[in-house]
Amino acid sequence: MKKTFVFCFLIFATNLSFASFSNEDAGTRSVGTLRVIPGGEQMALGQTGTSYTTAANALFWNPALLGTDEHGSLFLSHSVQVEGMNQNHMALSIPYRSQTGFGIGVTYADFGSLNQTSDIGAPLDNLNPHDLLVSGGFGFPLGFLRLGVSGKYISSEIRNKASTWASDVALWLPIQRKSTALGLSYQNMGAEIQYDQKKEKLPGVLRIGLHHTLFNKWRLALEGLAPKDQDPTLALGVAYRLLFPSTLQFFLRGGYNHSLAADKQDLAGMTLGVGLKYKRFGFDYAWVPLGELGSTHYLSMDVMSFR
Fold first, then answer.
1. What is the C-alpha to C-alpha distance for residues 244 and 215, in angstroms, rounded to an integer?
2. Any idea what the CATH number is for the domain that residue 132 is in?
3. Residue 82's beta-bridge partner residues?
4. pLDDT digit string (tens) for 143-200?
5. Between vectors from CA 236 to CA 84 and to CA 225, what angle results, nearest 5°?
6. S-S: 271 plus which of 183, 249, 250, 255, CB 3.0-4.6 Å?
7. Total structural domains in the chain?
């Protein structure tokens, strides 16, 4: 029964992923903040995470995994991006009962200062575009799989302010005693957002992820993405865990994301990172080079069992 479900799930997901892409939509999506999902671990593994991200960060990756941490958790993330842009995320996971849980989160993105001139070239006040997202979601078991849904309020300001709502739906399926798992999420379903008189669509994306844990030390992750306004792409990552006395764990991570390598040079497409976990605290860092554009840096912290 489980094998039949997995086969049907893969057929459905594959068809949906290619159906979701349209060349006519290329470059027509807005609110770029929705494209960046947080986490030093996930970014270091090629920007994968749909099949294995648990605790509070599951709210942003796969809300079906909310409720899998028994005592709740806190997640904090900061990223330094090109051209002075940065993003900050915070999320809390709140367990309820019977492997059911809730999550709430906030995202703030600052795009730096942009010069503005009039039609005749006279300098005007600088623009300070920014985005604010407030999210909430829940996950729960349903037979041998898990389902999840989340909603988000989006406030975006460039020259004028605009707002809208969006939602994510997701599922998670363990295949081999949780050492192998499959995750699917469709993100950013929602109404258009309107700046001035122009309405723009949100950057919807379908993610299909698979991960496998080997010898309790290696993690292998593979993820397919089908954005509404870009070509489908693949990402992959590998992590190795080193165990030390006194519950100390150290992680070495690397990955590759094809979408980051397009039309760029140098090490673009590669991702690298490290992680450290001690008792209920976890710290993760990722470095993502973007060729001539520069590099982005991701820092995140997890506090497990905060209650």
1. 16
2. 2.40.160.60
3. none
4. 989 999 999 999 988 777 888 999 999 999 999 776 899 999 999 998 888 877 778 8
5. 75
6. 255
7. 1
Query: In this structure, what token pair is assigned to residue 305?
Result: 């069992």
Cα 187 to Cα 28, 80, 126, 203: the distances in Å are 17, 23, 32, 8
Give the separation between CA 253 and CA 44, rounded to whole angstroms.
Answer: 6
- Check if the beta carbon of residue 30 is closer than 8 Å to that of residue 156: yes
Cβ atoms < 10 Å from Cβ of 266: 13
pTM of the predicted structure, to 2 decimals: 0.84
HEC sequence for 73-129: EEEEEEEECHHHCEEEEEEEEEECCCCCEEEEEEEEEECCCEEEECCCCCEEEEECC
The residue length of the chain stands at: 307
- pLDDT value at residue 221: 97
Domain span holding position 149: 2-304
pLDDT over 70 (residue 108): yes
Q: What is the CA radius of gyration of the chain?
A: 19
CA torsion angle 189 195 198 199 (round to 10): 10
- Tokens at residue 247, please? 């519950």
CB 12: neighbour CB atoms within 10 A? Answer: 11
